[in-house]
Design goal:
Shape: elongated
Radius of gyration: 19 Å
Distance between the termini: 21 Å
Length: 259
């Protein structure tokens, strides 16, 4: 097998034998709404690119688990796109390790954030929740994310917050449901102390679940829905798939040129 990641160094050979499958790697959740949301998102992806084989694999909690999905592909080619929003432990270790022991020839793409398409989805969800098209100086946003102990994850979330702030024209403070600080209530208090009376919570979650519910409950004003099946999310999954193929192709051409 061959594994290439966009979050670490490795070696690869040129993929052979048709179009590589897209394997969307979701975290998994005990909330049944999460699985139905992810399946609906994959249907959007298939509608955008009908000829592309699209599969689902979970890191934990839901079936199919990623190792089972990869085993079913045999020694075929696949690009694994994390349905995750930053470079946390799952992206940097768990997914590449699962890929490395599978028979499939795999490449692991970058997570979905940060990216302008992610900001498109975040902005639209806020507007749906009641965010004004012309916010004033008393408006601000808390970007609520899952949280991770990995420093790269916090870097990515901060970058997404900066992109959203530039888009909205208001301060956006990242906050976390677990494993990192500040928490959503702490971020709300910090923004309120700066004079922002209209603080919204933007849910930077791919699907409903415990963390999204917890962060929504901490909103003092409005809270947006999880990103779910927003059209930009489907386009972003395909963008990361295409990006991984282009990156691996460029690396292979450079390697061939040096031999």
């Amino acid at each position: 097998m061959t594994v290439m990641t966009l979050t670490g160094s490795s070696t690869s050979t040129e993929a052979t034998g048709g179009t590589p499958a897209l394997v969307v790697v979701a975290h998994g959740s005990r909330d049944p709404r999460a699985l139905s949301t992810v399946r609906a998102l994959l249907d959007r992806v298939r509608a955008l690119r009908p000829a592309l084989p699209v599969h689902l694999g979970h890191i934990e909690l839901n079936e199919p688990l990623l190792p089972d999905t990869l085993a079913a592909l045999g020694d075929g080619d696949a690009v694994l796109v994390p349905l995750l929003l930053s470079r946390g432990h799952h992206v940097k270790r768990d997914i590449p390790e699962m890929a490395a022991v599978s028979p499939a020839r795999t490449r692991v793409a970058a997570p979905l954030g940060p990216h302008p398409l992610l900001v498109d989805a975040l902005q639209d969800r806020l507007l749906e929740a009641g965010w004004p098209t012309h916010p004033g100086p008393d408006h601000a946003v808390v970007l609520a994310a899952a949280g991770s102990r990995a420093p790269d994850s916090a870097t990515d979330t901060a970058r997404t917050a900066a992109l959203l702030a530039a888009r909205l024209g208001v301060p956006v403070l990242p906050a976390y449901a677990s494993a990192a600080s500040p928490t959503v209530p702490e971020a709300v208090r910090a923004l309120t102390a700066r004079g922002h009376r209209r603080v919204a919570v933007a849910s930077c979650f791919t699907a409903p679940g415990r963390f999204a519910t917890q962060c929504t409950a901490a909103a003092p004003w409005i809270a947006s829905a999880p990103l779910g099946t927003h059209p930009a999310m489907a386009r972003l999954l395909l963008h990361r798939y295409d990006e991984a193929l282009m990156t691996s192709g460029a690396l292979n051409r450079r390697a061939a040129a040096t031999t």
